[in-house]
Amino acid sequence: MAKQVTVKELYTADTEVTEPVELTGWVKTVRASKNVGFVELNDGSSLKNVQIVMKSDLPNYEALGKMPISTTITVEGTVAYTPKAPQPFEIHAASIKEVGHSDNDYPLQKKKHSYEYLRTIAHLRPRTNTFYSVFKIRSLAAFAVHQYLQDRDFVYVNTPLITSSDSEGAGEMFRVTTLDLNNLPKDEEGHVDDTQDFFKKETNLTVSGQLPVESFALALRNVYTFGPTFRAENSHTTRHASEFWMIEPEMAFADLKDVMDVSEGLLKSVIRYLFSHAQDELQFLNDNVDDQLIERLTTTVNEEFARVTYTDAIDILQQADVDFEEPVEWGIDLDAEHERYLSEQVYKKPVFLTDYPKDIKAFYMRDNADEKTVAAVDLLVPEIGELVGGSQREEREAVLAQKIQDFNLSEDEYQWYLDLRKYGETEHSGFGIGFERLVMYVTGIDNIRDVIPYPRTPGNAEF
Amino acid sequence: MAKQVTVKELYTADTEVTEPVELTGWVKTVRASKNVGFVELNDGSSLKNVQIVMKSDLPNYEALGKMPISTTITVEGTVAYTPKAPQPFEIHAASIKEVGHSDNDYPLQKKKHSYEYLRTIAHLRPRTNTFYSVFKIRSLAAFAVHQYLQDRDFVYVNTPLITSSDSEGAGEMFRVTTLDLNNLPKDEEGHVDDTQDFFKKETNLTVSGQLPVESFALALRNVYTFGPTFRAENSHTTRHASEFWMIEPEMAFADLKDVMDVSEGLLKSVIRYLFSHAQDELQFLNDNVDDQLIERLTTTVNEEFARVTYTDAIDILQQADVDFEEPVEWGIDLDAEHERYLSEQVYKKPVFLTDYPKDIKAFYMRDNADEKTVAAVDLLVPEIGELVGGSQREEREAVLAQKIQDFNLSEDEYQWYLDLRKYGETEHSGFGIGFERLVMYVTGIDNIRDVIPYPRTPGNAEF
């Protein structure tokens, strides 16, 4: 009996395989002449196909020559090594059996398709080389994130997605409800009676797990979330989706320098993991999507990230010989043009900007002694812009209470968050990485819709 | 200068630490007499505390003796090894500095608190030994799941949470909307105009990623989801939550036997990982929560899981000398009492039940040749009941189309799912594991609310 093998096993075997083998996979292409035919077979175990050579003496040779793309076949044969050919081996088929039918009108014929078209067949696009590569890399990057953090004793915490908190100004939220919209319960004043909703109050989908995960850092020291977050913004850019994944590490007894050290280490570790686990996929994307990809990632791994204060960065931008669309002055929230100029033109590598004006940052960031800035940091990377945002958290109870007032937030709603300080004012810090932005950075794909299996954007929730 | 260390580093050091050390952590208890005082310090790196011995000649000795629980302190001192004492070492303090205040009315004083009370302070309960252990084990179990699957080339796929599909009868769903409930747009007939909602149609929170992830198995071979799912059911049991995490592996070229092999391998691998990475936490839970825990997990790892058909299991139940509340006959959906009898009394270990009546299983499960059953499998485990549910998927396009009709589902809505067969009828199979049930199994905790950081159940969405 032939030995069952996968394409990946054949490509990675230490020694030549001499016994008969059996492979099951999908037909990618078939061409057959009178005497001999060739099938490109893929079985999902590898981006690479294997070539099946079939001689015309196979009993069903004529039918095999007409198999539609994506037919499932089982091949028995021998491995013939071809050291001089572009492919290191091929399979000489002793038998080929069609085990699963496919229709003739397969929508992914061999020619190139636009990304726009492929989004309309999101259930089939993983069968293309590009999306095979993107989604394999997405998976490997996710695992590399877990591995880096777990190796350092970070505890993975699944913070809730349904929340009764507001968004701390981070963005618009989606309402979650079981009320019958065609028959809403009303209170005496004619307003919707939220107390009759599933959770007996108004609930929404979270924009961040940071605040709830802080409570775990104050017990388990180093923790992280890695899960979905949501923004109900009517945004149609290539960098925003309504549903996306965030990585949010949070560390007790840690300051802004620790944020930079850990996030830099994490990003480099992810890229190194991809270099050793996704060579084929990175090479394919470099050849077909972004020819700067491998060079950019190599630089990212090899160079120390730059570190500069916001205030110094403003100086650099003001002295730059560039006509920015938005004028630069201390206090502004930097635009993509400014961020990209810094990372792509000035430093030519990722750069941390620290100590932003307090007025443009969130209430929970720790006030610096200058009373103008907070201990915040953003990492700006070439091509993408902001990839990481972090801060030291305001751990001083009285200062935090004042900031909650200054930001017009409800002290009642944040009482539990103040409690974390009331029962232990502990220095702590954390950061967030938009996982899809990271995947864009490591694949060279420039539209967020093409790194998400089934993207959700305004007007789009198909499949 | 003293060397900064963590408690974990001290407990796991290969050789005795002789240089001066500096530790920062939280005060768990303090007691001080005239001449000497003791602080139990925890820094989150370990479930274990370290004892700090302070002599009365410390300049702030009197104040230190009155420190509230959860004060953050930095200790400099030397490690004194105490091989004959229960604790292998203690720290003789040269200085202790209070670096973070805590209030005197800390709600977690040393006495035992009920789980119910601790749920009301979910932001503080990770600071207890029980919840420290539970959430550390939850994290390690999650990583062990990823590691097992990634080691076998399974590709992690983040299927969408916001969906426009229905739930295939799996349960009630939460509506996701940005419509203003107090000012709903109406169509000409007076119904809510869903086309004006964010996604231009009605959307809900998913109950399962299985269907969308199947499309990836048919390209990437072995894939899995691991993410949140939702049920809007008014269920108040100890085993149901409104938001919970599911692990859903899906494999191309795989049948029901593969489902059993992989899920058994996965569960055993997770438990082995915990045995080697969470000894302290498992021992604590065994001593304080469930004294059968380690024995049960050891059996699970060492014994081959039993495998029996549903039909044979019905025979066994009918012949059992037990008065079940629900009478047993072929065709019923087994109740918890039946499931637990099989795993706890008959097999005394996890047992796979296979080939269920088609009428009680989902439309996508593959019809067996007997025309009465489907290639479905549930894993029943002691104490928990159903832990895994899986099936071979119906890959025959015509059969699946008929089943969609028989189940009164919309062929339009499932056209993309039929497409997966139209363009490749490939044998494939998968399973789902409720992650919280797994965490309950490996911690001995018997209420799902106590294995979720911030549990969501009807009427509860706090923090």
Automatic annotation (TrEMBL), chains A, B:
Keywords: Aminoacyl-tRNA synthetase, ATP-binding, Cytoplasm, Ligase, Nucleotide-binding, Protein biosynthesis. NCBIfam families: asnS, PRK03932.1. Its EC number is 6.1.1.22. The keyword Aminoacyl-tRNA synthetase applies. Transmembrane segments: none annotated. It is found in: Cytoplasm. Residues 135-453 form the Aminoacyl-transfer RNA synthetases class-II family profile domain. One of its GO terms (molecular function) is catalytic activity, acting on a protein. This is Asparagine--tRNA ligase. It catalyses: tRNA(Asn) + L-asparagine + ATP = L-asparaginyl-tRNA(Asn) + AMP + diphosphate + H(+). The lineage of its organism: Bacteria, Bacillati, Bacillota, Bacilli, Lactobacillales. One of its GO terms (cellular component) is cytoplasm.
